Amino acid sequence: MNNPTADDAEDVGNMPTFFKEHVEFFDSLRWILDSAKQSESWSLSIAPEEESDRVGKLIKIINSYQEQPMCLDPHLERIVGQIIKVVQQYVYAFYDNIVDLKSLSISVTRFDGIFDLLYMLCKVRGYKVILRFFPHGVADVEPVFATLWQFSTKLRVSAWQSRYILLIWLSLLAMIPFDIESIDSGIADLPAINSISSNQSLMVRWIELGKLFLAKPGCEMEGAAVMLSRLLSRKDSAASFQSLFIEWAVQQINDAANPVTSHPKDESKAALPIESVLQINGTLRVLCHLFSAMTSPALIEKQMPLLLDLFNLDAFDHHSITRKLISKAVQRLALLMLPVTILEKRRVHARPSLRTNLNDNGIDTVPTPICSKGPYTAADEDDSFDIDIPEEVEFFVSILLQKLRDKDTIVRWSAAKGIGRITERLPLAFAQEIVSAVGDILKEETLRTDDGHIDVSMTTEYSWHGSLLCLAELSRRGMLYPQALREIIPWVVRGLTYEIQRGDYSVGSNVRDAACYVMWSLARIPNPSSRQVFAEMSTQMATTLVSVAVFDRESSVRRAASAAFQEHVGRQSDFPHGIAVLQLVDFFSVGIMRNAFIKASRNVAEFDVYRHPLLYHLCTVTIYHWDLKTRDLAIMALRELAPLSPKYVLTSLLPEIVSNVSSPFLAIRHGAIAATGAIAESIAAEITADANATKMVLAVADNVPKRYIEDFGAGLTLAAFAFYMGCLSRAKWNIGDNVQNKFFDLFEMALVACKHVDSIVDDFTAFVDSYGLKPEQHLCIENNIKVAKSGTSRESFVLAMGALAEQRDIDILCSIVTEGATVEMRRNAAVALGQLCRRIQDSKIHDAAWAVAVVAALSQGLNDHSIDNRGDVGSWVRKQSLQSLAIIFDHDNQLAQRISTEDGALAMRLVGQVLCATTEKIDKLRAAAGRMFEILLYKQQIDLDGSAPGSVDVGKCLSQLRQLDPMQPEHFSMHESSANGDDFTWTDAEAAFRRVVPALSVSYEQTRRSLLEGLVFTGSAEPLGKFAVSAVAAYAETLSETVASEAESAAQWDVNGLVAELTRLLHTDKRTSKIINPTLIVADQLIEQGALLAADTNSSIALMSDELAQMATSSLLAYMAHPILRSQRIRQAAADHLFEVLCIHGAVDMDDDGAEIGSLLSETEWMQDTADVKEARSQLTKMIRRHVPPA
Amino acid sequence: MGLLSIIRKLRAKEKEIRILVLGLDNAGKTTIMKRLNGESISTISPTLGFNITTLDFDSYKVNFWDVGGQRTIRPYWRNYFEKTDGIIWVVDSADKERMKDCADELAALLKEDKLAGASLLVFANKQDIAGALGDEDIKNLLKLNELTTHHWTIKACSAVTGDNLLPGLQWIVYDIASHIYMFS
After folding, report:
1. I want to staple A316 with a disulfide (CB 3.0 to 4.6 A). Which of A118, A257, A519, A667 is the partner?
2. What angle do CA B96, B102, B106 make, to 5 degrees?
């Protein structure tokens, strides 16, 4: 939000304003109202166009304040006041029009836009606030009433927003302190609605008008309900109209709920038609408003039996809104019957008041804090608390208790609030009964397990949610006393981790959230005697809250738990290490799941008190979670946490986990196997010291029934096994030969069964590193590449070959990179080559022949431009090849030297390819290339005095490139990330192009051409094209400067060279447009930007255009005789085009041939389908060929 | 509807106001809080963490956050669900040596955008000590007159005697209420 400026301050006094559009808004509003004021225009059926445009804009502005409507407050009086003044004029004129039957007719729709503006204000800020600024004089009553009446007779024409505004205006007017009868002038000329004629009294007609809207959906129903309730609770009408209305309403609901159907037998709860539902809801809404406006239950004494019958009925509560309204009506009836006296007395007790405390200050005497008056006990509540509770209240409370279990959240929520409000007004004994009744809902259908835990699997999340919401409400209102707290807190704590499995998802996040709400509101109980209860239970509460805050799947629940924790720390200060822990689990750190699970939990676990509860929660709940991602994170967290308390994990948690590895539930099995691995790795020393535990861990693979790793769906179990085996391997467990065999078999199965094998291959690599492979196992992998059943698994085995280490493995992989059948095979082989070389680089890669073979294969990979329906899939191979090259070259700074000595051409080609790849369109690919580029330039050492001529060339080329690189080595760092310390990154295309373009000056033609080709391809396509072109253009400019001065420079390269290179590209392959079109596009752009101005005109531009002309002409000629029937248009277009071109070049006037060509082109009927056309064309061709030799 | 939205709604409904009590250490923040809370002020030790106290003030429910002098608690200035409506900055009027520190801290604090729009009440505390600076002096030392981004006032007070606490609180509560609870 902006800081207030001096400008704003002027407008609204000293108040900072956050309504930043207010100047524009008021200008526009003034204009609109001036336009709307003109009574001559009121007969228009719609507002003038500009007016409605401006209204639309204002509506948009107001709507944008939906989230922070308070920002409008300082301006509201002015906004609403101005608008309503004009509306008032309109309404008066409308009324006069009806009464006097003037000739001028006023349109019903003229003010729609302005009413809509008012409606938008009501929507954003609430109608109660907006109504404050509406006029409410006696004189307004009849005009507004008559206008609405007229609008109502034209329901289809008038807008609902207009009727809504008039309805709420009437609801305000319904409260004028004068007798309605005395205002009634008997407006005569209103048309009849629903057989209510004009001779009825105003009051009767007013009520009937309201009833008309009760079955309307949306705002009108709400407006009418408010209006009717205000009207009916008037002192002068209360006696007669109110009771009549209630009787009518009950009748109405009953009628709607029991439609007279043609099948009287059909008494089952069929869904009611929507009209009936609306009618019921509208009528209930009036009752709700009415009950809350009433002051004494005596007023409805007579109707009470009727109402009790009604609410006893369950025939009409199919609809959730209906049930919510019933809950509302019931609680308001109950509140009406209960005096507020107890509530007021309690309030005085409840919260300390600042004024009292401060006025109380006797110097140096200790003032008695109000809140230390102690808990409310029965003793505190004297006789005056002993009131009679009407029987009906009990009935109403029982309805509300039932509704706490409702399947709709809005109903439960309304019931919870209702019970809270009612309980506040009841004597202690009764209140405590309600509290325990609400608490008892939690206990329904629960079981206590042997170890004292509460099993909730038979409960419904509805009843738990409703009950917890209600407990939170009761707590907020100070109705939970120490005894009840002691009873309830363990259940609330249980609610914090409530979750019930339903198929492959679970329910209960709302329950956990509601439990956090209870925790939060418990913290706000000011009563000191509850502190004692908290002190007893604080550890349990704190540790569970923290567990939820770091290990819940839902970020909203984690944050809610964090908020509740904070509230306790701030208000009760009895949570262990509260402040320190709070800073570890604040709103932001628990918001991101990964951070919460791994970092925050690790930090909190540093505190003794929290360590075991966190581990316990992790190992009993989270690692078995139904959601795979949650489980995986939990396993990672376990790896972090286990070393903090190895003994506890080993003795208390591990046996339980291992016993779950054969669970019939996939999620549990998967979690248990993986968790065993995580523990085996992170506390390996402690486990291997314990023979039993070692045996237990090693037996995991034997304990899982075969069907779980062989049947359908075995993939996940096998992936868990792979992880487990990887863990043991990394921790270098002593496993023995049998287990080694078994593990290998499992790896093989996993590679066959799983789709995503990256992590499995990592685990497999760890396995091979630790335990080696037997010859037959080696062979097995090789065979699988050829014979595995599915293509996917062949690809997986290719990837797994990265774990091997022999000459023939390299050969196989090299051949797959270059000739692999699928793009995935080639990609995986490229990855595997890099991995393999990394693993053996210390020993065998020094063999130069190997190195050449690997680099040659990967260099082939860089040329992979396969495309299929997934797009540029070759880019996968290119990227992986680059990454593998980077790995290999990064580890050996003599590699370039050796390769260029062996095969100079390969090395030169590689430099060019890498440069070309730095201009790739795909950011990640470019980044990989950039890294490789930097490694080549700054990490490779080539001996310039070397004997081999190849290596000298490569060395010189690299050293030139080093000089041309605008980023000098001080910016260079060899970190994994491509960021170079400062702000340069290869993923920023613009910066990357600027960096590599100067390399065009390199004196090696092959290298230069590769780079230019890359730039041309990238430059011809959006969105990166413009960056590439402007980089080349900028470069060409520097070239033109050097043309004169440094012509003798070593590069021997100037802008003419650049043009020549472009021209050469045009000639490389004339059959396809693959390279021609991009080159033309880039050349066009360069010419347009004036980058090639310095070029020698004769040299190449002319050549270029002649060549182009030839090609273009021949293709146009081909088109002119296009054989397809429908292609007349094409022929005609081609002819027209050719004629145009010839004219522009002045060819037509050149000589006779030129003239003849011109006439042939313009006079032949190219649209015809005859031999004439062919004839004309061949003649044309002949003549043109004379000037333009065939391309 | 989750807890966080419930909290936001309740805050508006119950007309809650959130005020941070800040200042250099030993300025008397906790003493003021104890005084407001009607507790004994005979034993006060440095505040370690933070305390939230809720007190009724007329129809408003005022939450005071006494976060001590610790900078580490700063993230809580802006709570996830409630923004800071006001700041009470407590100054030890007798500690002339640290007045410069005090001014710098306050200036830095008010630059936090999380505190934009918050009203500022400066308590020139410890007026009961002989030789304490008056509110005019402190106003100049803290350069309050140059402050345009926040509504502010300064009140000379004494937490020990309780002098002038009420007028200060009355100012800040009503200043806040006048713009956030204008129509409720």
Report:
1. A257
2. 155
Closest of B97, B86, B165 to residue B125, by C-alpha: B165
Residues in A closer than 8 angstroms to B75, CB to CB, are 583, 586, 588
**Residues B110, B89 contacting (CB under 8 angstroms):** no
Residue A1177: the pLDDT is: 73
Return d(Cα A287, Cα A269) in angstroms, integer.
Answer: 24
Cα gap A337→A296, rounded to integer Å = 7
Stretch A829-852: mean pLDDT: 75
Q: What angle, 0 to 180 degrees and rounded to 10, lies between the N-to-C axes of helices A666-682 and A714-730?
A: 10
- For chain B, the 3-state helix, strand and coil shares in percent, each to the nearest 5, are 40, 20, 40
**What is the rounded CA–CA span in Å between residue A1020 and residue A708?**
54
A542 or A894, which is more confident: A542
**DSSP for residue A224:** H
Please choose, from the candidates A183, A375, A364, A210, the residue with its C-alpha nearest in 3D space to the C-alpha of residue A289: A210
Share of chain B above pLDDT 70, in %: 88
**A513–chain B Cβ distance below 8 A for any pair:** yes
Verdict on whether the full-model pTM lies above 0.95? no
The residue in chain B having the minimum alpha-carbon distance to the alpha carbon of residue A526 is: B54
Phi-psi region of A364 (alpha: psi -120 to 50; beta: other; left: phi over 0): left
Q: C-alpha dihedral over A143, A148, A150, A155, to 10 degrees?
A: 170
A1023 upstream amide cis, omega within 30 of 0: yes
CB contact under 8 Å between B117 and A361, yes or no, is no
In percent, how much of chain B has pLDDT > 90?
14
**Which position among B5, B54, B59, B70 bears the catalytic label?**
B70
For residue B3, list chain A residues with Cβ-Cβ distance below 8 A. 513-514, 516-517, 520, 556, 560, 563-564
Cα B137 to Cα A374: distance, rounded to the nearest angstrom: 44
Q: Residue A500 burial by CB count (10 A; 0-12/13-18/19+): exposed, middle or buried?
A: middle
Site from B16, B37, B48, B55 to mutate, A interface, most A CB atoms within 10 angstroms:
B55
How many helices and strands in chain B, by DSSP H and E?
A: 5, 6
Predicted confidence (pLDDT) at residue A318 exceeds the cutoff of 90:
no
Pair A1135, A1109: CB distance under 8 Å: no
From the list B75, B162, B180, which residue is nearest A70 (CB)?
B180
Q: Which of A16, A559, A573 sits opposite B4 (nearest CB)?
A: A559
Higher pLDDT, A322 or A1191: A322
Q: Which residues of A371-391 are buried (b: 16+ CB within 10 A; e: fewer)?
A: beeebbeeeebeeebeeeebe
How far is residue A170's CA from residue A988's CA, in Å, rounded to a whole number?
63
- CA dist A1170 and A1166 (Å) reads 9
Q: What DSSP letter does each residue of A961-1024 carry, written as one string? A: HHHH-SS-GGG----SSS--SSS--TTSHHHHHHHHGGGGG-S-HHHHHHHHHHHHHHHTSTTT
